[in-house]
Amino acid sequence: MSSVPLPPFAQRTSRLRASTIRELLKLTESRDILSLAGGLPSPDSFPLIDLRRESDRLLSEFGPSVVQYSATDGVPVLRSWIAEHAGATFGRTVDPETQILVTHGSQQALDLIGKVMVDEGDVVVVEDPGYLGMIQCFDLYGPQFEAVPGDENGMRTDVLAERLANGLRPKLVYVVANFHNPTGATLAFARRQHLAELADAYGFLIVEDDPYGAIRFRGAELAPVASFSDRVVHLSTFSKMVAPGFRVGWCIGPPAIIAMLNKAKQATDLHTSTFAQYLLANLVSQPGWLDDHRRSIVPIYRERADALADALAAEFGERALFHRPDGGMFLWATFPELTNTDAFAVNSIEAGVAFIPGQAFAVDQQPRSTARFSFATLSPEQLRVAAARLGQAYANTTKGTP
Amino acid sequence: MSSVPLPPFAQRTSRLRASTIRELLKLTESRDILSLAGGLPSPDSFPLIDLRRESDRLLSEFGPSVVQYSATDGVPVLRSWIAEHAGATFGRTVDPETQILVTHGSQQALDLIGKVMVDEGDVVVVEDPGYLGMIQCFDLYGPQFEAVPGDENGMRTDVLAERLANGLRPKLVYVVANFHNPTGATLAFARRQHLAELADAYGFLIVEDDPYGAIRFRGAELAPVASFSDRVVHLSTFSKMVAPGFRVGWCIGPPAIIAMLNKAKQATDLHTSTFAQYLLANLVSQPGWLDDHRRSIVPIYRERADALADALAAEFGERALFHRPDGGMFLWATFPELTNTDAFAVNSIEAGVAFIPGQAFAVDQQPRSTARFSFATLSPEQLRVAAARLGQAYANTTKGTP
Hints:
12 helices; globular; alpha/beta; 4-stranded antiparallel sheet; homodimer
């Protein structure tokens, strides 16, 4: 109606990048493709029957308060469960009144941390390769990212220590300690202790993001970084443990920081869904429910991880290098013959299989000879077919090169 | 464990104010007080039986995708319903693919708009008195607020026009057109047209927030500002129409702005609850359901608004001046004998009734002789008792003054 242009966007939007992964996922949805590209948990793991029973009980027995506005920090029954659950893992008391904030998925906790902690130019340490959703989220607040390399044992804390000794002064260090996205790596016990010591010595805050910890299918659970220092904001979520579509996550941290995150959350969206909080709290606080549920879903992931690893090993031999993950949803592979995996990815879509090239997880966004494969949503049989198609696509990619 | 202090908060947190209302609400929860202070919809209006039926159907018949991750813009069935519903109200086509973003309550839409539109120092026009949740939310992005007075017909667009003519160049103008919080006022038809013309002439964007429009209990519906200009981001929500505890709202606007809000939402929290979106979409898209539901809940609000207005008129006569609202949840009164209502509010809590002093809604946060009374959550009988207690508290407040 008006010829006057719309007002300009805020300057920070120039740093807002759409996720290449989400773009690629849209592409794969529209065709008959076996997708190893997604980051979705297995729909076979969702406890629909239990959710139905609890939802019915909630809406028939608990009265209107379960769909009313509620407190910003979260409904008390959920905060109590989180405090108890996390307290057992951390090996120290977690106060449900002052140390917990329930968030709209753990992604929102990242946004709130960016909002209350990050000034333009502040140094934020991330692992490289890393979870780009975190960079995408923090980028709006203008930090300077410092990429620290990771290996099969997680972030190289020795490299971080060296840079700290040389003057690096980060405000935050972001780490995914269990079954990292994209590498599947688990931060070694000694590195967890080391990272906590560095935080205590240099005064930075650790953001320990733990979306996948509940899906461990091999080896013993390791104490979280939060058990070695109280300079940690620890994030977790029901997304992989129960189902992601409710968007219920939480963060646990020092009272002063939780109080500020709470104020920011109140201004941002008042509170997380009352109904979803009650529903999930009632479900997981049934004695034994979560252990039983984990016992039923973890083997699904183990079987799929092994099926994909076996099929890739058979198909690629030495041409694909990878470590078998101990949990989570991702297998990370290096293809030494390829300088980058972009053409391989395109050829794979032609062959009917999708994955994410390593470049998408590189902090510098430059090409890499790596790839992320998610094994969570396909059956073992589909994963074997997918590996065969990858073999075909790989042959097409290297054809003509010596 | 460490004596090193935690890292400092981001500078923007100095602008983060806790809501005095939320603080006051905490106080009233702990005592036997009739509360006119809240902003909660009536729990008697929540369709628990219908929600239970739809939730049961959703979790038994629709498969795991209802609790899986979903697209950032919202689930298609909900976007279709919004497009149809809003299209009918706006009198123009709304494209569900490019003009709608589902948000975690409409409060989140405000945060996302602040994020993508507001640079430090940008001028944002707000009505005075106004919804402080919006100021609290935008404040983090550092705008300069320009307060334009409102009266019983909403924002004084003549005052805005005069300031625009004198050089004011706002980026955004925020308006609650129906049953304003706190004043209960409805923006007059001619002012809606006028505001749209001003936006088209001066190039600013209108943010039209409409949480209460569905609760009209007197008079004919007025066309939204969005029907007179496409330079409008129109916010709405299920919070008062169905129930707030699901946190499902939405915004409708120009495709370029919705696309940027979508990118920001993806970085912020990926998407709104899949389950809640399906649940509410299935409920409201049943033919006739929403009309029937509104016919059943609107009389609750009308009866309560009238009960409070009658009781205040009987109790206070000329000492309290107010307009009877045509909808919504709030009655706004001026007490000409009082220079401010703070002591009156304290005495009221002593007498067993709570309300919010006008100061809490003043952009300059200075004392006012006004007060906001919510009639939504008390029965007519309770409202009459509340008015009597207010009379008692008022007498105690003015006792000793000539």
